Amino acid sequence: MTWIALILAGLLEVVWAVGLKYTEGFSRPLATALTLAAMAGSVGLLGLALRGLPLGTAYAIWTGIGTVGTVIFGIVALNEPASALRLGCIAMIIGGIVGLKLTTA
Question: What are the TM regions of this chain, as residue ranges (predicted)?
Fold first, then answer.
């Protein structure tokens, strides 16, 4: 259950990171409310995951999911560059996430 909470927390991190772009400096009330709700949910689920996972592992995976998801969203939806170097860096982050998962009880 802790891993599910952590994965959901990471996905909500993607939602709020992307949502920040659409708040337009927190001037759009609905986008702002949704972004703040995603932030609260993300941190809340991270807190639940920390009950059963080491801090360093959980935090690194949480931010890794958020980073990779946000970059992929930017590439797919916002036409951000998808250079070989950029994709290689994403692959290294994913490798780190998998490595941490495999080395955590």
Answer: 33-50, 57-78, 84-103
